[in-house]
Design a protein that fits this description.
The protein has 411 residues and is of the alpha/beta class. It is 42% helix and 14% strand. It is built from 17 helices and 14 strands. The strands form 3 sheets. Strands 7-8-9-10-11-12-13-14 form an 8-stranded parallel β-barrel, surrounded by 6 helices. A 3-stranded parallel beta sheet has the order 1-2-3. It has a two-stranded antiparallel ribbon with strand order 4-5. Helix 2 links the parallel strand 2 and strand 3. The two termini are 27 Å apart. The chain binds phosphoenolpyruvate and magnesium ion (MG). The site of magnesium ion has 5 residues, from helix 12.
Length: 411
Amino acid sequence: ILVAEDLAPSELTRLPPGKVAGIVTAAGGASGHVAILARALGIPALVACGPSALALQPGQTLVLDARAGLANPQPTPSDLAAARAEIDKLAARRRAMQASANAPAITVDGVAIEVAVNIANADDAREGVAHGADAVGLLRTEFLFIDRRDAPTEAEQTAAYQAVLDALDGRHAIIRTLDVGGDKEVPYLQLPPEPNPALGLRGIRTGFAYPDMLDAQLRALLAVKPLSRLRILVPMIADVGELIRLRERIEQLAGEMSLSERPQLGVMVEVPSAALLADQLAKHADFLSIGSNDLTQYTLAMDRCNATLAARIDSMHPGLLRLIAITVEGANQHGKWVGVCGAMASDPQAVPVLIGLGVAELSVSPRLVPEVKSLVRGLSRRHCEEEALRLLALGSPQAVRGRVTELWPGV
Ligand code: PEP
Ligand code: MG
């Protein structure tokens, strides 16, 4: 178990595979990028534990239950036996769910929910397929840009994106344009220091500020084959003008490359204005994907990396649920579908709620696909819809979670 004050995403990706059983950090937030990466790597992680984490001694025995949000530094022999039994039980449950992972996730009343994966590279894509993923719902391309001295070339990017499509055996991939800034630093870009990075040059704003870099990425994406299996996703869109500007640029570049086909273009809904204007965005986008990590951060005005606030940054906040409902309603007006690619989609308690709000795709960590699919198969969309409406009237995430526990006790 690795204990640290905090970790950079690049440090996490360099950990020797299979050697780390868990992570405990004093700082960080549950939807910060360290937590996201740890989830993708299948490493139980307890973040934002405060300074007491650093009092742990090297070699000390520690029982870490990341699901329950607990670390026990003084386990008795019976605690240890219980932890080992729980680990075995979880492994057996995973094996059972893996057996049906390749079948589609259809609710008891016949609604198919696409269960896709969030990935960083072609290896993750293969892992997603092995776990039964229907598609890639989010490729965070920034992982291709961090942890190096200069930007990847266009050819390097095309090779990386093509490798992902090739790993998918006919499935489609949603590839997001570069989302740097905020807590995702790329040293060679030398972004100017900002007092509030999360509110500064981030996502597509960085793309428009560095047009050569954006063009190189768009050309690299347009060079993959077949384009019918590629969907481009744009991060941090705040209004429809940005989307139209990007669509026009893609159109120009595709024209210059003499392409006859165009990939679909989707918008991340992660800025509250995008949720409120979803009807306008859906008119010009092929699909919408809710980035619940940032949508939560910006709606609640709570930094997703702030350890003190970590327990309160909860996507099940009724304010968030209402924004998701508005997003789906806006998208439906134009016959477009809405997915969720933030960590909320990987939260079992959120799954019935999202399905009830009309979400059609859940993009989760590769290892969670079997579990999310098996959960969907036990739900009735009609029942979820009726109950989700009532949840919108509650006053806190605790109240929402309490009600969800009553309604779906096994989740
Ligand atoms: C999100 O904000 O929910 C999201 C999926 O994007 P990221 O976590 O990479 O900011
Ligand atoms: Mg985001």
